Amino acid sequence: METGSEAILLSGQSGGVATLTLNRPAARNALSVALMSELEAALARLAADPTVKAVVLAANGPAFCSGHDLKEMHGLRGREAVASVFDQCVRVMTAIVRQPQPVIAKVHAMATAAGCQLVASCDLAFAADTARFATPGVNIGLFCSTPMVALSRGIGRKAAMEMLLTGHPIDAATAERWGLINRAVPSETLDTVTAEIAALIAAKSSFTVKTGKEAFYRQAEMGLDEAYAYAARVMTENMLAADAAEGIDAFLSKRPPVWRED
């Protein structure tokens, strides 16, 4: 919590899908130390909850997320204080990647700097066709170096460098074409589209999804031969797991599978 009585991060759950909603609308959901702390804690709590199959990251107000809280950052004194904020941001972004459940960004409006990083860090992202994305740090003498890590892993290098060097915002159609988001949809259908995808994922085996998500990110950093060797080991373990046996038996028996609860 920050000053005031209203929660800065809202949490809800329905049908195996947890929703975390950034709730600093007056600050355009800037990532204050307090908000990042709550987000980090909420992700850790959800990671340990076997009833949660997918996580949706949403926001209230006129922006999805405007990045770091520059007013807060401007008041910091000393290298250690500044470094601690960026270290905390790194923990939040890596927590999303390492979250056992898939994390889906539901982007209704502008996402800039660390807010764009937040979108790029999520496993999936769906956006209103009116949303915009930018890494404008270069405009104020602060290159978006940490957002660059997630951005350059999510889209092509030339596209990432264009965003980083110009600071110019891109529209949702461009973000979809470049691979920053999965799909740009009309604003009025964003909730439905995101909910449908989250429900599809929530219906899968949690063990299988967790295994696959972890393997995806690990193999992506490997050379081809190492990646195939690693993926073959993962698939062998997956094949021997109870949910794979259940899934194959259900497929052959033409019945719905009954997944185990982790």
Automatic annotation (TrEMBL):
- Which SUPFAM superfamilies does this entry report, sorted A to Z? ClpP/crotonase
Protein keywords: Fatty acid metabolism, Lipid metabolism, Transit peptide
* Gene3D superfamilies to which the protein is assigned, alphabetical: 2-enoyl-CoA Hydratase, Chain A, domain 1, Lyase 2-enoyl-coa Hydratase, Chain A, domain 2
**Annotated protein name in UniProt:** Enoyl-CoA hydratase domain-containing protein 3, mitochondrial
InterPro entries linked to this entry: ClpP/crotonase-like_dom_sf, Enoyl-CoA_hydra/iso, Enoyl-CoA_hydra_C, Mitochondrial_ECH-domain
Organismal lineage: Bacteria, Pseudomonadati, Pseudomonadota, Alphaproteobacteria, Rhodospirillales
Biological processes per GO annotation: fatty acid metabolic process
Write out the GO MF terms.
hydro-lyase activity
